[in-house]
Structures are given as structure tokens and as C-alpha cells.
User: Fold this.
Amino acid sequence: MTEIKRRWERLSDEDKTQTKEQLIQFFENERDEKIGIIAADEILNFFLQSAGSKLYNMGVEDAKKAIKNRHEELKYDLDDLLDV
Assistant:
């Protein structure tokens, strides 16, 4: 059976599991609160839904800038190779 992924779910199952474990540890260590896997899943889904797309889009924009900069550098490198 194929599991339907929501639009904001970009983490692998392994990354989600690890992040939920980190959330559980954070609440225990920093807030002296015990939360379970269901609460950790709800918290993670909340943050992925509210900020995930924005963070993803920021990463895409950063990649576009890096590619544009590298393209400019390559143009200069190729100009240096011209036999003038």
C-alpha cells in the first residue's frame, strides 16, 4: 500500500524518526517535560507545515544564486581560454 505524503513532508522516514527522538530529548532535557512519540510527531508536523515550504524555497533560492555566481565565474574562465 502506497503511503500518501503531504506537500510539506520532505524529510525521509529515517530523518523524521531521528528528529522526533531529538524533540523528545529536547523536551526532557530543556523543559523537564516528558512527551511521547505522538506529541513529537504532531510538533514536527506543525513546524514542517508552517515553516517547511519557506525553508525549502530559501534553499532553492540560495542554490539559484550559487549557480548564477558559478556561471559568471565560468564565463571568465572560458574567456581566459580564448586564443586572441
Observations:
- The mean pLDDT is 91.
- The chain has two helices and no strands.
- The chain has one domain: 13-81.
- The helical segments are 13-30, 37-81.
